[in-house]
C-alpha cells in the first residue's frame, strides 16, 4: 500500500477512510481506534514514533471520516450493530491492504475488536498489542465508579450515581458534574488533544453499542468477555495500560497470566489516554516489543 489516504470500498458497499505511512517497511501494522464512534486521530503520531513499520489506520463504519449510516434504521442495525461486524470489517480492511501477516494494535474499544480478531484469524497475526483494554467490559465501568469517587465530592458523586441509576442522562447537573470529572481525568497528565470546530464523535453509534450509562454498559457490548478464551491466543501479545487507566492493573495482570505469550507494561503517569499522557514510555514499549524475538515474550 502506498503512503497517503485511501478510501476502501467494502463488499457490503460501505466506504472506509484509511491512511498509510512508512510504506515499504516489511513489518505491517493496522491500528484500530476506540469508541465506538471515535476516530483514528489517536494514532497520528504513530508513523514518526514507530518508523520500522508500515502503519495503516482506518475509521470504522460510523466514524467521522467513513460512511455514517443511520443506525436507527432496523435494516442497518441488524447488519452492523454487533461486535462481529466490526471484527469482519477489520478482516476486509486487511484483505484490501494485502497484509498477509501483520501486527494488530487495538486501543480501548478497538482492543475488544483486536482480541476477537486474534481468536478468529490468528493465522494473519505476527504480534498483538492491546492498549487500555482487558478481557471483560465490566472492568471498565467498575473502575469508572472508583475514579468518579476520587474526583468529585461525596455529594456530587452520590448525585451522578443516583441520576445514572434513574437513567436521567440529560439532567443538567448530572452533565455538569460528569463534565468536571472528564476534564480532570482526561487532562490529568496532558492537555494535548485533537481539537475540532465540531464534535466528531458519533454518539448515535456509541449509545446503541454501549448505552449512555458510564457506570454500566448496555446494548450490544453489555456483558462482553473473552476471559475464558484468552488462553487460546498464542500470538505474542503486549498489554499496555496506564497506571491510572480505566482498566485495573490487577485485572490486566490476571489477563496476561492466561496468555501463552503475553507481556504487560504499566505506563507511569498515564490514564486511559496513555498514548498522549506518556508517549515516551508508550512508544519505547511498543518498539521494543516489535523488535524482540517471540522467545523473549512470556508472562
UniProtKB/TrEMBL annotation:
It catalyses: Release of N-terminal proline from a peptide. It is found in: Cell envelope. Residues 30-278 form the AB hydrolase-1 domain. Its main location: other. The active site is at residues 108, 245, 272. Its EC number is 3.4.11.5. One of its GO terms (biological process) is proteolysis. The keyword Electron transport does not apply. It is an enzyme of class 3 (hydrolase). It comes from the Bacteria. Keywords: Aminopeptidase, Hydrolase, Protease. It holds the Pfam family Abhydrolase_1. The keyword Protease applies. One of its GO terms (cellular component) is cell envelope. One of its GO terms (molecular function) is aminopeptidase activity. Releases the N-terminal proline from various substrates. PANTHER family: HYDROLASE ALPHA_BETA HYDROLASE FOLD FAMILY, MONOACYLGLYCEROL LIPASE. Belongs to the peptidase S33 family. This is Proline iminopeptidase.
Amino acid at each position: 500500500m502506498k503512503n497517503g489516504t485511501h478510501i476502501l470500498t467494502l463488499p457490503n458497499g460501505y466506504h472506509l477512510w484509511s491512511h498509510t505511512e512508512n510504506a515499504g517497511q516489511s513489518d505491517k501494522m493496522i491500528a484500530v481506534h476506540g469508541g465506538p464512534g471515535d476516530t483514528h486521530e489517536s494514532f497520528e503520531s504513530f508513523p514518526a514514533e514507530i518508523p520500522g513499520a508500515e502503519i495503516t489506520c482506518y475509521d470504522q463504519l460510523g466514524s467521522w471520516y467513513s460512511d455514517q449510516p443511520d443506525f436507527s434504521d432496523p435494516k442497518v442495525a441488524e447488519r452492523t450493530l454487533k461486535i462481529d461486524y466490526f471484527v469482519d470489517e477489520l478482516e476486509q480492511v486487511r484483505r484490501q491492504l494485502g497484509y498477509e501477516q501483520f501486527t494488530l494494535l487495538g486501543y480501548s474499544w478497538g482492543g475488544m475488536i483486536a482480541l476477537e480478531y486474534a481468536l478468529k484469524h490468528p493465522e494473519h497475526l505476527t504480534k498483538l498489542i492491546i492498549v487500555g483494554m482487558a478481557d471483560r467490559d465490566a472492568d471498565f465501568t467498575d473502575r469508572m465508579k472508583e475514579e468518579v469517587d476520587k474526583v468529585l465530592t461525596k455529594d456530587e458523586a452520590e448525585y451522578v450515581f443516583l441520576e445514572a441509576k434513574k437513567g436521567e442522562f440529560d439532567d443538567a447537573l448530572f452533565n455538569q458534574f460528569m463534565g468536571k470529572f472528564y476534564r480532570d481525568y482526561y487532562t490529568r497528565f496532558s492537555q494535548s488533544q485533537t481539537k475540532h470546530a465540531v464534535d466528531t464523535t458519533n454518539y448515535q453509534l456509541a449509545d446503541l453499542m454501549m448505552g449512555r450509562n458510564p457506570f454500566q454498559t448496555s446494548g450490544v457490548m453489555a456483558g462482553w468477555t473473552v476471559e475464558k478464551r484468552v488462553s487460546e491466543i498464542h500470538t505474542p501479545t503486549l498489554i499496555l495500560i496506564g497506571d491510572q487507566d480505566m482498566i485495573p492493573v490487577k485485572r490486566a495482570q490476571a489477563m496476561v497470566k492466561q496468555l501463552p505469550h503475553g507481556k504487560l507494561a504499566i505506563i507511569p503517569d498515564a490514564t486511559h489516554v496513555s498514548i498522549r499522557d506518556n508517549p515516551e514510555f508508550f512508544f519505547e514499549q511498543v518498539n521494543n516489543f516489535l523488535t524482540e524475538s517471540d522467545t523473549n515474550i512470556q508472562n
